[in-house]
Amino acid sequence: MNTFVTVEVAGCAAIIVLSVPVLAAQASQAQEHEHAAADMAAKDTAMMAARTTTAAAAVVTEMVTQRRAMRDSMMKMQDGMMAHMMEHMQAGMASMAMCPMMTPAGDTKH
After folding, report:
1. Distance separating alpha carbons of residues 28 and 21, to the nearest angstrom
2. What whole-number distance in Å separates Cα of residue 95 and Cα of residue 91?
3. Model pLDDT for residues 70-109, shown as the tens digit of each residue
4. 88: burial class by Cβ within 10 Å (0-12, 13-18, 19+)?
5. pTM of the entire predicted model
6. How far apart are CA 102 and CA 93, in angstroms?
7. How far apart are CA 110 and CA 107, in angstroms?
């Protein structure tokens, strides 16, 4: 019986000794997988940040374009109004009273 136990213990020891490199390789693969997953998550986060920045830049650019167009339109309108008022000033005060632009909004009586 002693010999049987010794053989069993020796067999178990051999299995353990032979299993250690396999277990170490599995642990190494698990760590590599975790690092790869962490790298992928970091790349995803960076990509989302880049898309967000790009989207924000596009919105700001569009707002600036619209603002410039609105300002240019307002400046043209102001220049036109000033020229119109100068014509009335040269023609006299009576011409302002006759001008449809000088009537209050909604008042169409003449």
Report:
1. 10
2. 6
3. 999 999 999 998 998 888 888 887 887 788 877 776 555 5
4. middle
5. 0.47
6. 12
7. 9
DSSP structure class, residue 102:
G
Three-state SS for 60?
Answer: helix
Report which residue type is found at 28. S
> Are the C-beta atoms of residues 27 and 19 closer than 8 Å to each other?
no
CA distance 66 to 85: 28
**Phi-psi group of 55: left, alpha or beta (phi > 0 → left; psi -120 to 50 → alpha; rest → beta):** alpha
Mind listing the pLDDT tens digit for each residue in 26-61?
777 778 888 888 888 888 888 888 888 888 999 999
Burial degree of 85 (CB within 10 A; 0-12, 13-18, 19+):
middle
